[in-house]
């Protein structure tokens, strides 16, 4: 099997002496959409945050596109990290800027000088690439619209286009559809699956709706109290497993 785009082993994290992640191992390959499931507080977001560098693991090994992050620093670390892009539930876009400018921001790690300071100086090449990314998510016709005027589902698609403009191999989506209505959620999940399958991206998405995982993901990873309790194709998810992951008795604080 080809090398995993994201490989995590023995990941551990505690907050204030309380274990939040314990010996977490998993891989995500290019071409697959993996859904992270589990009750509130089971450690899903912390897992993605450790991969993205937004939380510092206590132990463990994280590899992005074959490159181990531990031991890297400065520009090397920033470059390795830029292989993974994060798409959040609360969409981190600049509402008063156009969709196109927001998407261009995904490519800023590759530019220097004035272009990295103001959209006024974005190069034609960057704008063309951003436009292609907007086209990929079906929003080319809204490129010059201010993002604040777009719907939640459209904004999430702009955020995904920004991740594409970053040329990331790994897309980390933390509750990408939690704030969306059912139709928009279906649309965004279908887009994430399409990007995994057609653009050969590795997509890891935290979801609160197992039925969305079953419909759109290839594999599910279920977390229970910071440990992996399930890691298999979504076809193997059943009532018993979902009960284990979500039952109040097992998830009592
Ligand atoms: N910065 C932090 N400081 C202290 N505790 C934290 C911090 N971030 C997360 N935690 C705790 O770590 C545990 C796991 O949180 P995490 O957000 O990873 O869970 P989750 O599975 O994503 O939950 P949810 O579905 O509610 O988003 C929780 O008990 C949470 O309170």
TrEMBL record:
<keyword id="KW-0813">Transport</keyword>
<dbReference type="GO" id="GO:0016887">
    <property type="term" value="F:ATP hydrolysis activity"/>
</dbReference>
<dbReference type="InterPro" id="IPR050086">
    <property type="entry name" value="MetN_ABC_transporter-like"/>
</dbReference>
<keyword id="KW-0472">Membrane</keyword>
<dbReference type="Pfam" id="PF00005">
    <property type="entry name" value="ABC_tran"/>
</dbReference>
<dbReference type="InterPro" id="IPR003439">
    <property type="entry name" value="ABC_transporter-like_ATP-bd"/>
</dbReference>
<keyword id="KW-1003">Cell membrane</keyword>
<protein>
    <submittedName>
        <fullName>Phosphonates import ATP-binding protein PhnC 2</fullName>
    </submittedName>
</protein>
<dbReference type="InterPro" id="IPR027417">
    <property type="entry name" value="P-loop_NTPase"/>
</dbReference>
<keyword id="KW-1278">Translocase</keyword>
<dbReference type="GO" id="GO:0005524">
    <property type="term" value="F:ATP binding"/>
</dbReference>
<feature type="domain" description="ABC transporter">
    <location>
        <begin position="6"/>
        <end position="250"/>
    </location>
</feature>
<dbReference type="InterPro" id="IPR017871">
    <property type="entry name" value="ABC_transporter-like_CS"/>
</dbReference>
<keyword id="KW-0547">Nucleotide-binding</keyword>
<dbReference type="InterPro" id="IPR003593">
    <property type="entry name" value="AAA+_ATPase"/>
</dbReference>
<keyword id="KW-0067">ATP-binding</keyword>
């Amino acid at each position: 099997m080809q090398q995993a785009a994201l490989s995590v082993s023995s990941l551990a994290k505690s907050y204030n002496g309380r274990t939040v992640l314990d010996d977490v191992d998993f891989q995500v390959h290019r071409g697959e959409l993996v859904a992270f499931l589990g009750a509130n507080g089971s450690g899903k977001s912390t897992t993605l945050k450790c991969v993205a560098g937004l939380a510092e693991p206590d132990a463990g090994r994280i590899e992005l596109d074959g490159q181990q992050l531990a031991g890297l620093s400065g520009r090397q670390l920033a470059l390795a990290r830029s292989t993974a892009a994060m798409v959040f539930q609360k969409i981190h876009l600049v509402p008063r800027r156009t969709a196109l400018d927001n998407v261009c921001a995904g490519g800023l790690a590759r530019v220097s000088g004035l272009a990295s300071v103001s959209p006024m100086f974005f190069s034609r090449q960057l704008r063309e690439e951003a436009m292609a990314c907007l086209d990929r998510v079906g929003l080319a016709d809204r490129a010059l619209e201010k993002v604040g005027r777009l719907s939640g589902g459209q904004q999430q698609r702009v955020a995904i286009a920004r991740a594409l403009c970053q040329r990331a191999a790994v897309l980390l989506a933390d509750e990408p559809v939690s704030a969306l209505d059912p139709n928009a959620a279906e649309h965004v999940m279908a887009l994430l699956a399409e990007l995994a399958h057609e653009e050969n991206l590795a997509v890891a998405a935290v979801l609160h709706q197992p039925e969305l995982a079953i419909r759109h993901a290839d594999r599910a990873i279920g977390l229970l109290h910071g440990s992996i309790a399930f890691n298999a194709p979504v076809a193997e998810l059943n009532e018993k497993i979902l009960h284990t992951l979500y039952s109040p008795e097992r998830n009592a604080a």
